[in-house]
Please model this.
Amino acid sequence: MSTEPRGHPRLSNVNARGRRSSLGGSLLAIRAGNFWEETPLPEGLEFEDQPTVENTAWEKHWYRRYFVQADHDVFVGKHDKIGGVVMLSIVRDDISGVGAQFRTIVWRSSGATLYVIPVTEKEAKQLAGGKEWKLKDTLARLHGCELSSLYKKFRTVTNPEVMSDLLRLEAMNPGHNRFHQIGVMYGGQGQSAEMALLANNSGSAAYNEFLELLGTEVGLAGYTGFAGGLDVTTEAKTGATSRRTSFRGHEIMYLIATNMPDADTRARVLGSAIVRIVFLDGDNTFTLESMAKASTVVVAVVQTVPDDDSMYSLTLAYESGTALVGPPLKARYPKNGGFIQTLLAKLINVERAVVTNEHSRLSVLQQAEHAMGRALETAYKKYYNKKASDYNLHGSLAPSADLPADALAAIGGGFEPDSASVLRTQVILEAFPQPITCLAPWDDDSLFYGASEGLFLLDKVSSNNIKLKLGSGASHMLQLDVLKEEGVVLALSGATPSVSVMDVDRIVTKKPKIKVLSQTSKAHLFTTGLVGTATHLCVAVHSDVIVFKWDDFDRTFVELSKIRFPAKPLTMVMSNDGSGSLCVAFKSQFVLVNLKTEAITQLHEDSSSSPMAAFLLDNVYFTGIDAPSMGAMNAMIGSACNRWLLCYQKCAVLMRVLVAPDGETSVTHEYSAHWQVPPQAITLLPPYVLSVSSSVLEVRNVVNGTLLQTFPIHILPDTTFSSVLKYAGRALYVPSCVSDDHWRINRLTPTPIDHNVLPSADAAASASSS
Model:
């Protein structure tokens, strides 16, 4: 790996701290004054997934989606212990094939927090029998809320005007703006300073081709849609035309410098845009430090690749301290709609990250908090009734057709879900007659799966579904794993569960030879990984974890050691990077064990939630920071750097673990992301983390925890999910139940980008910006 410092070919006058790897691209961000440049993905780690807008209005504006058209309850209260004025909105949501659940919004000056409370089968029967759901019970099940002991401070609101006020309050949430103005400048050959670019009255053919891809040209005189601050009178002070587009429910107006009458107008108008695109001709550079002090803190430099005029290069620089967002950058893009989709998704996500960064000079958090605080105080004075409520949920507010137009339009017209699904589903096994309890993909064409009656092999090439005759010890399958290099299947099975080692060739083609690890009797969990280059197996038996090493001569595992924990491990996972790291969860905490030294480091503890899963992000590239999977950070600072995603029933936390050469370990918390619905199962499908409940599938960006999309469970061909998920490569395998005697296996894969589709030029062209 080269360690020569370098500047970026399209951004000059930078403090070049970045370094180029043998894979191309810098591995550390480059700083230019207050800007950081994001590093493209190395070759071989590039994804072709649908670019997605994070934390969309559709996913966050629950009150408009679920409450105003249904009977629901609203409560208001005020007390120092609950942080001033707090409002609660609660609605019962009945889902076909799943049952009832309660959606809850907790409104504070800091924003709205969203919760889903699933209803158990027993509670559903009680509700059907006429039992009322109590406010106190609702508050007790809101993780991190701590309002249940103060439920008597709240009063029921029955005035229907509160619905209009809550719609307006919902629109105040920072970072969920649907309307964006993006500046566009052109730089000719040899032009690198902002003033030179602002002097251009026109651009090259390549620049005009890029504008055609960006959006549809519209006349500004009399334009009634979102204009982004452009003059829409007949005076045409900012030019006669511009370009606009719609993308994933967002309205975008481009502020195109070459369409404006003079340099002063261009500087004034583009200076108001947080995001600016700079299109450069030739092998040119743009000097960030030449920019006048303005609102622009995100700069995207687009350029035709010199040796291939069918490709664009994209360089992105933004205000330092801004959180990482998706989609990840590539070094080159074909000149098509896929590039424009990626560009717009990235710019919208970065703009939101800037305005919600409390350290940014453009942060809207403080202003939004003040505005929401004032609105809540007004609502308290208007709706609080000193007469005590009965604190039951009655559905006191009915759907209203008389809501003011400005309230319904508070977040603008064209409010609709993103039609581009992040995931697509394929059924690979249908109508299996018994519950599928575990599975393990061998390759793209074959899959082992377990059920109460034994082990089965699904061979997709020959369309065979084979029951493997392994004897009584292979009944009651609980967990499966495959070790392809060793050529074996591992199974935790039997009436008294233990781990068995089975040779793949023999169980498929010959009389099976099963080696049972007798030390693992009454085991409940196992995991595999590497210590150096040797494959190891860790098996949890009660509160002990027994460590085994693969013996290639005897083709089985031999016991090495035993580690005792204070309680029964709930989940554990071993690293495959050779470090010998074992992450174990028990009670309410995760710890990291070094199997080489048996040293234990606490990673995280949450006394209010139960651990569910852990993942080492060794195949996720954190652009702009470091690349754990490539070992780049390790080589630069002489330390081992890993990130662990630790998943609880209520949230996921990302922890960065740095191990110095002397063995000293430091642990840093990077983010927490709260599930909207308590999950039954959680898995990783890089670069996504998925949580699955009986009613919804949540898809989040694993790099920052932001919500990408949620899917009602019925859009997948299932009614319920089992608790077993398994991913291999970039496919996720999900066993699910249609009925008691009808089980299937689904294969979920990221939806690839359609390079031929441009963002919509027609939808919501006249949408109001409100």
